[in-house]
Amino acid sequence: MKFNVSSTKLFAQLQAISRIIAPKNSLKILEDVLFELGDNMLTMTASDGETTIHTSLDVENLEGEGKVAFGAKLMLETLKEFPEQPLTFQIDNQNFSLNITSSNGTYSLVGENGDAYPQMASEDKDLGSFTMSAEVLLNAINKTLFCVAEDEFRPVINGVYFSVQTDQAIVVATDAHRLVRYINTSVSAEQPVNFILPKRPAMLLKNVLNKESDEVVITFGEHNAQFQFGRTTIACRQIDGIYPNYSAIIPQVNEYKVTVDRQTIINACKRVAVFANTSSSLLKLALSENTVTVSAQDIDFSTSAEEMVSCSYSGAPMAIGFKANFLIEMFNQIETEEVMIELSDPQRAALILSPENNEKEDVLMLLMPMMLNE
């Protein structure tokens, strides 16, 4: 087999799909990328055994067809050093050796038989499909992925939960300490569908959707989910199980509402958090008339800090504690100039919201409080 291809286009595609390759694989061939040639097109496949991604690009002067697998790491390290130029790939179908010829040199390596590359099981009952724009899907993943758990005892919260109804899509993630619920009314399905997308394929989608503007067709079955856009297809195993009833922990009545400049409260929290106990990272927010006082202390080292921030608040004085990095991370997810915190009491979850409503999009973040030693 022989073909010509742009060095930068090949590198960009290969770099995107190789993100799914796990550092350690039970099968050595999963450290490779599968090359399939035919119809003047190169199709590349990468997999970690649970998630598989296919993408294709046009090649020129193709001679022959077939498939062969090459080590992803070596291929990437070779291609990243090339400036934009046409490369000639010549593959021996018998011993799977590869010669890459550039304008100034020749590079040789040996691959493996492409027929040995594992294929993802396709025996799955097709339950339907729906469409999302790449922008909406990327936004949903960006808003929720940071809250996904890594809990070996509760695997159902180790992914992003999709619940697509006839009038809206709900995307949720939680690690039992914090929760994000993203709703978009521009997405719908003919029949309601629910599935849990594992963290690794969610991270892969986050990386590859950045440069996409196409619609994403999502096909789902009993065990698998598939995302197709442009010339790329990502297929993965769903997480089996029933997602927790997240709605039950969202407080519906919150009489205490605080509105504060987002960047000001972020900066104050970052400065004060330096003085928090390293094991707990506890930040205390004390609310009074139009003021929130951010404080932290570490008794072991006799250090403390306190900073007052102006806000809009007219309720009764109260104090509540949060894990500093969780609170700052949630504030960073808000895109408006101000952030709203809704509270019921110091022992119940706080809601972190944008005070400005979006016509088709709604993001609710929930953070569990920490016990204050007072």
Can you walk through the features of this model?
It is a single chain. The chain is an alpha+beta fold. The chain has six helices and 26 strands. The strands form four sheets. A nine-stranded antiparallel sheet has the order 10-6-2-3-4-18-17-16-11. The termini are far apart. The model has no long low-confidence stretch (mean pLDDT about 95).
Alpha plus pi helix count? 6
Oligomeric state of shown chains: single chain
Looking at the structure, what is the overall shape?
elongated
Q: On the 0-100 scale, what is the average pLDDT?
A: 93
N- to C-terminal distance: 74 Å
Number of strands: 26
Largest sheet: 9 strands, antiparallel
Structural class: alpha+beta
Walk across the major sheet and give the strand order: 10-6-2-3-4-18-17-16-11
Q: Estimate percent helicity.
A: 10-25%
Structural Rg: 25 Å
**What portion of residues belong to β-strands?**
35-45%
Residue windows where pLDDT falls under 50 for at least 5 positions: none
How are the elements arranged and paired?
Blueprint: E1 2-6, H1 7-17, E2 32-38, E3 41-47, E4 51-58, E5 60-63, E6 66-71, H2 72-79, E7 86-91, E8 97-101, E9 106-110, E10 112-113, E11 126-133, H3 134-144, E12 159-164, E13 169-174, E14 178-184, E15 193-198, H4 199-208, E16 215-221, E17 224-229, E18 232-237, E19 256-261, H5 262-273, E20 282-288, E21 291-298, E22 303-310, E23 318-323, H6 324-333, E24 338-343, E25 350-353, E26 361-367
Antiparallel strand pairs: 1-5, 1-7, 2-3, 2-6, 3-4, 4-18, 6-10, 7-8, 8-9, 11-16, 12-13, 12-15, 13-14, 14-26, 16-17, 17-18, 19-24, 20-21, 20-23, 21-22, 24-25, 25-26
Helix pairs in contact: 5-6
